[in-house]
Design a protein that fits this description.
The protein is an alpha/beta fold and 355 residues long. Strands 4, 7, 9, 10, 12 and 14 form a six-stranded antiparallel β-sheet that branches. It has two domains: 155 residues, Jelly Rolls (Sandwich), CATH 2.60.120; 190 residues, Rossmann fold (3-Layer(aba) Sandwich). The radius of gyration is 20 Å and the shape is globular. The N terminus is likely disordered. This is GDSL family lipase. It comes from Phytoactinopolyspora halophila. InterPro entries: SGNH_hydro (IPR013830), SGNH_hydro_sf (IPR036514), SsfX3-like_N (IPR048977).
């Protein structure tokens, strides 16, 4: 669904002297993928990873702010353009430079920084018709105003995706702020390697097993799901040793209600050496929480769910990779690439029987 306050979308000329033109971000020739709902205004558009029309049912300013970030969100279209770029409304006050990736015919063609004015542009592309994806920055406040192509270029809607759908849910370690670029987060790498259509529900600091998030995931299309649970609960004490296991059982059962027979991979926390045997705000150590994630999966399997499986976070990113933790909790760019290499074969094996 779209939340729109704009007039009918139009294609507007821009930079006539440079031989380029703009397509407004709400132009119907552009498809937004990886979103739950769209927001369009007269000046800009952005994807939401929560249902904007019902945002009041998803309390928490931080959760809502993260949901308006563009992790896994891309703008898709077909074109014969030799030049592709765009313009964002410069609203982010993040210290780091935001990056946009260009994917052409399924392959990463380049990464460019967003300038202080909000402009970004890629070098000359090969001639001929091509499918284009603009992957937007996975972190920060990014609002796209327009897509830019050369003036003579044709642009038409991309064909609807027929790829199986990967849905990931987790914390900052799923949103991947410090990944090298939007296509190099671990969810994006897994999706590209396995030719899956990604929806990333990584909410930095905000993976607290919210029942309304569980209901949303239940109702979203998905052919394989990965849920990474625990680290935000450790840090903020959302649950105790008494309540964490029941909360996981409830969330995973709600998700399963909408996805019978779909592979559901539940990943426990990756390594964080200082937290492994130290109780956090939850009163549990990270090792203790990892054990409870495993128990939740075991109990659901014993109850008859044979399509749920545990992925031990230490098998994804363990003590041997601790040197790739930038701050003791979050992997650096190389660390996220390592995570993708560990997760991809697990998703492939879980998903293979259904394909």
């Amino acid at each position: 669904m779209d939340v729109s306050t704009s007039e009918e979308p139009t294609t507007n000329p821009r930079h006539a002297a440079s031989g380029r033109r703009e397509l407004r971000s709400d132009d119907p020739v552009l498809s937004w993928a990886g979103v739950v709902e769209m927001e369009h205004t007269p000046e800009w558009s952005r994807g939401w990873r929560l249902p904007l029309r019902r945002i009041g049912l998803f309390p928490g300013d931080d959760l809502r702010f993260r949901a308006g970030m563009q992790a896994g969100v891309r703008v898709e279209f077909d074109t014969d353009a030799r030049i592709v770029g765009g313009r964002a409304v410069p609203v982010s006050d993040d210290a780091e430079t935001q990056i946009v990736d260009l994917v052409v015919d399924g392959r990463l063609a380049g990464s460019v920084p967003v300038g202080a004015s909000g402009d970004f542009s890629f070098g000359e592309l090969p001639a001929g018709e091509k499918s284009v994806e603009l992957w937007l920055p996975q972190f920060g406040d990014f609002r796209l105003a327009a897509v830019e192509v050369d003036a003579a270029a044709r642009v038409w809607p991309a064909s609807p995706s027929r790829r199986p759908r990967l849905l990931t849910y987790g914390s900052s370690i799923t949103q991947c702020r410090t990944a090298a670029s939007p296509t190099r987060t671990w969810p994006a790498i897994v999706a590209r390697e396995l030719d899956l259509d990604l929806t990333c529900l990584g909410f930095a600091g905000e993976c607290h097993l919210d029942p309304m998030v569980g209901r949303m995931i239940r109702d979203l299309p998905a052919d394989v799901l990965v849920a990474c649970l625990g680290i935000n609960v450790y840090g903020q004490g959302t649950f105790t040793k008494r309540s964490f296991l029941p909360a996981m059982l409830g969330l995973l059962s709600t998700i399963r209600d909408g996805h019978p027979g779909v592979p559901l991979i539940v990943m426990s926390p990756i390594v964080s050496p200082e937290r492994e045997n130290t109780a956090g705000a939850s009163g549990m150590s990270l090792a203790g929480m990892r054990a409870q994630v495993g128990e939740a999966v075991q109990l659901l399997r014993e109850d008859g769910d044979k399509d749920i499986q545990l992925l031990d976070g230490l098998d994804v990113f363990g003590p041997g990779q601790a040197h790739m933790l930038g701050d003791g909790v979050h992997p650096n760019a190389d660390g996220y690439a390592h995570m993708a290499g560990s997760i991809t074969p697990v998703v492939r094996m879980a998903f293979a029987p259904a394909r």
